[in-house]
TrEMBL record:
It is an enzyme of class 4 (lyase). It comes from the Bacteria. This is homocysteine desulfhydrase. Its cofactor is pyridoxal 5'-phosphate. It comes from Alkalicoccus daliensis. It catalyses: L-methionine + H2O = methanethiol + 2-oxobutanoate + NH4(+); L-homocysteine + H2O = 2-oxobutanoate + hydrogen sulfide + NH4(+) + H(+). The lineage of its organism: Bacteria, Bacillati, Bacillota, Bacilli, Bacillales.
Length: 382
């Protein structure tokens, strides 16, 4: 099957088993049994569900759906992207182990790695993932995991996953990739040698800004470990949220296709405009498109607050990936936890705006940004 077909047909493959065309919501905390012997079958592995914290048909559906699109053996859904990342990390690393992570991380992951994991006794080194020598120099005897993002935030650097997979296998490390920005529609890291892929399903997988969710995918062996962590940390996703995640996932490919086209057009239209000093947009992220996020840097003549006040119908949010075009201010939101020196070193500046491009007509999107820019420059000149 091609991606668009696979995307819409993954759930409810069994044709006759259920009467309902969509998966029912198993809004239950537990499952019942005929007797104690029957209940024992759960522990024997003959039955799948016992208690929702340990597993539920709706959360399994979300995990399986993303796993299928990523080309993974298994997937585990959880209550958020961060909990999925944590479950994936803990499937590989324990106290006393060491992780090498990219320095240009999503801020929440940066906090988790630089503070909470250290509290668990898991050490993390942050390196420039484009510097192969720096990665190799950071490898220690207790290093178990290499961690990066397929398309980074907000600078939209496209990671060389195959190159990282070579380093990982040469050093006997597992490779984990946060594929939130790319989604499997654009990039499938497991096909390039990664071992684990994590998603904030709050973003493109869910796609409608109505659910907080996460998914981690990989081999059946690693995902069994990740699933046990989600159960024991109590970071399972509720049945309705999982159902919303699946409902969103069904239209992933068609949303991404449109959002990528709009983003490509917007990046082209903004490039070279007066008031914009730089447009960040990937050139060759994948054959299907280059992502739905465009980052711009205003020049110092254009006041960033004035710009944000003149965006008309474009929403100002702390996040990305909804159906509607929105903007965020990375230094104040996603990258707030990063130390200022690191932000400066990375080039995440105070004049930078990250645009999450929606499914509207590209002409309206472009016009709204041109108008905001015109107003901002006009106000600067009076
Ligand atoms: C939002 C985000 C996360 C965290 O996901 P939550 O669902 O908010 O927990 C992780 N990685 C990236 C790249 C993100 O954009």
């Amino acid at each position: 099957m091609h991606f668009h077909t696979k995307n819409i047909h993954f759930p409810n493959k069994e044709k006759a088993k259920e009467v309902s065309k969509t998966k029912p919501i198993y809004q239950t905390s537990a499952f019942t049994f005929t007797d104690f012997e029957d209940m024992e079958d759960y522990y024997n592995g003959e039955k799948s569900y016992l208690y929702t914290r340990m597993g539920n048909p709706n959360s399994d559906d979300l995990g399986k759906g993303v796993a299928e699109l990523e080309g993974a053996e298994a997937g585990v859904a959880s209550a958020s992207g961060l909990s999925a990342i944590l479950a994936g990390v803990l499937a590989v690393a324990k106290t006393g182990d060491h992780i090498i992570a990219t320095q240009d991380l999503y801020g929440g992951t940066w906090s988790l790695f630089s503070s909470d994991l250290q509290d668990f006794g898991i050490e993390v080194s942050f390196v420039d993932m484009e510097d192969r020598e720096a990665i190799e120099a950071a490898v220690k005897e207790n290093t178990v995991l290499l961690y990066s993002e397929s398309i980074t935030n907000p600078l939209l650097r496209v990671e060389d996953i195959e190159g990282l997979a070579q380093i990982a296998s040469a050093n006997n490390l597992k490779l984990m990739i946060d594929n939130t920005f790319a989604t499997p529609y654009l990039i499938r890291p497991l096909e390039s040698g990664a071992d684990i892929v994590a998603h904030s399903a709050t973003k493109y997988i869910g796609g409608h800004s109505d659910v907080t969710a996460g998914v981690v995918t990989g081999s059946a062996e690693l995902m069994a470990k990740a699933k046990a962590k989600v159960g024991m940390l109590g970071s399972n996703i509720g049945p309705f949220d999982a159902w919303l995640g699946v409902r969103g996932l069904k239209t992933l490919s068609i949303r991404m296709q449109k959002q990528c086209e709009n983003a490509q057009a917007l990046a082209k239209a903004l490039d070279g405009l007066e008031g914009i000093s730089k447009v960040y947009y990937p050139q060759a992220a994948s054959a299907q498109g280059n992502g739905a996020v465009v980052t711009i840097e205003l020049d110092t003549a254009a006041d960033i607050i004035t710009f944000s006040k003149n965006l008309g119908w474009i929403k100002v949010v702390p996040t990305l990936a909804g159906l509607e075009t929105s903007v965020t201010y990375p230094v104040a939101t996603s990258h707030r936890p990063l130390p200022e020196e690191l932000r400066e070193k990375l080039g995440v500046t105070k004049q930078m705006i990250r645009i999450s491009v929606g499914i509207e007509d590209e002409r309206d999107i472009i016009a709204a940004f041109e108008e905001a820019l015109k107003e901002t420059l006009h106000k600067a000149n009076v």
